[in-house]
Design a protein that fits this description.
By secondary structure, the chain is mainly α. The protein is built from 23 helices and six strands.
Length: 588
C-alpha cells in the first residue's frame, strides 16, 4: 500500500476516533464544558495535560529548530520543561484549591475587581490567539504534504475538526480526546526515532544513540555532525551563536510563560481534589519527558541525514521527498551556477522570501521570483518540515511516514482545542456571566461558550494561514506574552497578600503593552524594523523579551500597590486559606 493511501487511513481513523470520543463525552452543563465536571482521574489528566502542552511546536517544530540551530535551541528544551516543573510546584495545587473555572476567575476573585478580570481576559485572548496561530500553521504543514493540499486548505480542514469536538464536547470531550491524541502523538514520535537511531548508530534508544558512534565510524553522532557542518561553512552543532543574556532571557520567558499558560493551568481544575492535581502534574511530567528527551536526538539525526541527502546531489537524481516538499513550497532550490547540482552551505540562498513565479527551470525545478545572493548556498528548507520529512529522508517504510502525519495532526489539534476552550470560557463565563450579564441562565452561558468557540476558530484559522514566523517561534512569542502578564498576577495573588487590585491591574497592563509593542515592532511588516541583535534592547530577542516584560510587571505592580489602598482583610484570609496544605475545601 502506498504512502498516500496509508496516510489517508491513519489520519482519517484518528479523526474518526476523536469525533467519536467527542460525541460519547459531550458536555451537558457548564461545569462539564469548562472543567469536565472536576472528575478526571489523575493519570488521564496527566496524559491530557501532556497532549495539551506538547503542541505542534513540540512535535513538529522543536526538533526542526534543534536540527538547524543546535546548541542555541536548547533554550526551548530548558525553558519549556523547567517551566512545567515551576507550574506543577508553585501554582497548580493552589489554583486547584481555589476552585474556580478559569484563570481570569482566579484573578477577578483574588483582586476583588471586575476590571482585573477583564484585563486578565484580554491578556488571555492575546496569548491564546498568538499560540493557536502556531498550532493551525502546524496542521496546515502536515496536511499540505501528506494530503497534497495547499496549506490554506489544510488549516481550514483542521479548523473544522477542532470546531466539532471542542464546541460539542467542551472540556469533558477535549480531555478524553487529548488522552487518545497523546497516545497517537507519542507513538508517532518514538517509532521513527527508534528506527533512525538503529540505522545511524545501531542503538535502539534515541537518547543513548545521540552520544553513540555512527555505524562504520569511530566518530560519535555529534562529532560527525559538527565536522560536516563546519566543512559546509556553518557553526558547529554543539556551539551557540546567541549571547548569554539572550539565552537566559528566552529560557526565563519560556519557563515563567509555561507557568502562566491558561490552557495548561485550567487542566488542574478538572481533577477531584488538590492531591490529585499534584499527582496529575507528576504523571504529565513523565509523559512529557518521553518526547522531550528524544527531541535532541531526532534533531541531530535529521540534520545529518539532510546533509548527506542533498549536498552535491544532482537535482535530477535528488530523492523524491525533495521534489515533493518543493512542490508545496517548503523546500526551494535555485541553481546559481547552472551545473544542475545542489550546493548546500552557509548563507541565505535567496533575497527575501522564496516566492514561486509559476514557471519551471531547465532542470524541472520551481523557478523563484527572487534574485540570488552571492552566498554559495542554493537550497532553503522550512525547518517545520524536518520531523515530518525525517522518515522519508531516512528511507523508512510508508506506514511510519503515515504514522508521523497522524501524530503531527494530533499534537496540533490537541493544543488548539485547549486554547479554543479557554478563549470561549473567558468570553462566556468571565465576561458575560461574571461581569456584564450575571443574570443569564446556564443554558444561555453554554450557548455563548459554544458561539465564542466558533468565532475563535475562524480567527485562529486566519492566523494559521498568516503566521508571524515558524511554529516554534510563534509559540515562543505566546509564552513571552504569558510571562509578562498572567504569571506575575497569579504568583503575587498566591504568595503576596499585600498585592492589591490597583497594583495587579497596572502590572498586567504595563507588562503586556511593553512586550506586545516590542514583538509587533520587530516581527510585523508594518514598521520595517531590522530584527537582529544589533537593534534589540540589551541584545534580547523578541522571543526573550517576555522576561523583561515580567520584570516591568512586577515593578509597576509593587510601585502602584505601595501607594494605593491596602488589600481587604477578607482577601488576606482567602489567600491564607488557599495556601493551607490540606484538601479541606478543595472543591466549591
Amino acid at each position: 500500500m502506498d504512502t498516500q493511501t496509508l496516510t489517508y487511513i491513519f489520519v482519517g481513523s484518528s479523526f474518526a476516533l476523536y469525533i467519536g470520543i467527542a460525541i460519547w463525552s459531550r458536555a451537558g452543563s457548564t461545569s462539564e464544558f469548562y472543567v469536565a465536571g472536576g472528575h478526571v482521574h489523575p493519570i488521564a489528566n496527566g496524559m491530557a495535560t501532556a497532549a495539551d502542552w506538547m503542541s505542534a511546536a513540540s512535535f513538529i517544530s522543536m526538533a526542526g529548530i534543534i536540527a538547524f540551530s543546535g546548541y542555541d535551541a536548547s533554550v526551548y528544551l530548558m525553558g519549556w520543561t523547567g517551566g512545567y516543573v515551576l507550574l506543577a510546584l508553585l501554582l497548580a495545587p493552589y489554583l486547584r484549591k481555589f476552585g474556580q473555572f478559569t484563570v481570569p476567575d482566579f484573578i477577578g476573585e483574588r483582586y476583588y475587581s471586575k476590571a482585573a478580570r477583564v484585563v486578565a481576559v484580554v491578556c488571555l485572548i492575546i496569548i491564546s490567539f498568538t499560540y493557536i496561530a502556531g498550532q493551525m500553521r502546524g496542521v496546515g504543514v502536515v496536511f499540505s504534504r501528506f494530503l497534497e493540499l495547499p496549506i490554506e486548505w489544510g488549516v481550514i480542514i483542521g479548523m473544522g475538526i477542532v470546531f466539532f469536538y471542542a464546541v460539542l464536547g467542551g472540556m469533558k470531550g477535549i480531555t478524553y480526546t487529548q488522552v487518545a491524541q497523546y497516545c497517537v502523538l507519542i507513538f508517532a514520535y518514538l517509532v521513527p526515532a527508534i528506527f533512525i537511531s538503529m540505522l545511524i548508530t545501531g542503538n535502539p534508544v534515541p537518547q543513548l544513540g545521540l552520544g553513540s558512534d555512527v555505524v562504520g565510524s569511530d566518530l560519535s553522532v555529534l562529532a560527525r555532525l559538527d565536522g560536516a557542518l563546519v566543512d559546509l561553512g556553518f557553526a558547529a552543532f554543539t556551539e551557540g551563536s546567541k549571547s548569554k543574556l539572550d539565552m537566559f532571557a528566552i529560557t526565563l520567558a519560556l519557563m515563567v510563560g509555561t507557568a502562566g499558560l491558561p490552557h495548561v493551568i485550567v487542566r488542574f481544575f478538572t481533577v477531584p481534589k488538590v492531591s490529585d492535581a499534584r499527582r496529575s502534574a507528576g504523571y504529565a511530567l513523565v509523559f512529557i519527558a518521553l518526547l522531550y528527551t528524544t527531541a535532541p536526538a531526532v534533531g541531530a539525526f535529521a540534520r545529518l541525514n539532510f546533509i548527506h541527502s542533498v549536498d552535491e546531489q544532482s537535482y535530477a537524481e535528488a530523492p523524491n521527498w525533495v521534489k515533493t516538499w518543493e512542490g508545496i513550497g517548503l523546500i526551494a532550490w535555485m541553481d546559481k551556477n547552472g551545473d544542475g547540482v545542489i550546493q548546500y552551505g552557509a548563507g541565505a540562498p535567496f533575497e527575501g522570501r522564496a516566492d514561486y513565479d509559476g514557471a519551471a527551470g531547465a532542470h524541472g525545478e520551481r523557478l523563484l521570483a527572487n534574485a540570488p545572493t552571492d552566498a554559495a548556498n542554493e537550497i532553503v528548507v522550512d525547518r517545520d518540515i524536518m520531523v515530518l520529512a525525517n522518515p522519508e529522508i531516512a528511507g523508512l517504510p510508508p506506514w511510519v511516514i503515515a504514522l508521523v502525519a497522524a501524530g503531527g495532526v494530533a499534537a496540533a489539534l490537541s493544543t488548539a482545542a485547549g486554547l479554543l476552550l479557554v478563549i470561549s470560557a473567558s468570553i462566556s463565563h468571565d465576561l458575560l456571566k461574571k461581569t456584564f450579564r450575571p443574570q443569564i441562565s446556564e443554558r444561555t452561558e453554554l450557548l455563548a461558550a459554544r458561539g465564542s468557540a466558533a468565532a475563535a476558530v475562524v480567527v485562529a484559522g486566519y492566523l494559521g494561514i498568516n503566521p508571524p514566523g515558524f511554529v516554534a517561534q510563534v509559540v515562543a512569542l505566546a509564552f513571552g506574552l504569558a510571562a509578562c502578564s498572567l504569571f506575575p498576577a497569579i504568583l503575587m495573588g498566591i504568595f503576596f497578600k499585600a498585592m492589591n487590585r490597583e497594583g495587579a491591574i497596572a502590572g498586567m497592563v504595563a507588562g503586556i503593552i511593553f512586550t506586545l509593542s516590542y514583538i509587533v515592532y520587530f516581527k510585523s511588516p508594518w514598521f520595517g524594523a531590522v530584527n537582529d541583535a544589533d537593534h534589540w534592547l540589551f541584545g534580547i530577542s523578541p522571543e526573550g523579551i517576555g522576561a523583561v516584560g515580567m520584570m516591568v510587571n512586577f515593578a509597576v505592580a509593587a510601585g502602584v500597590a505601595r501607594f494605593t489602598a491596602k488589600t481587604p482583610p477578607s482577601v488576606r484570609h482567602m489567600v491564607d486559606a488557599i495556601r493551607i496544605p490540606t484538601d479541606a475545601k478543595a472543591s466549591k
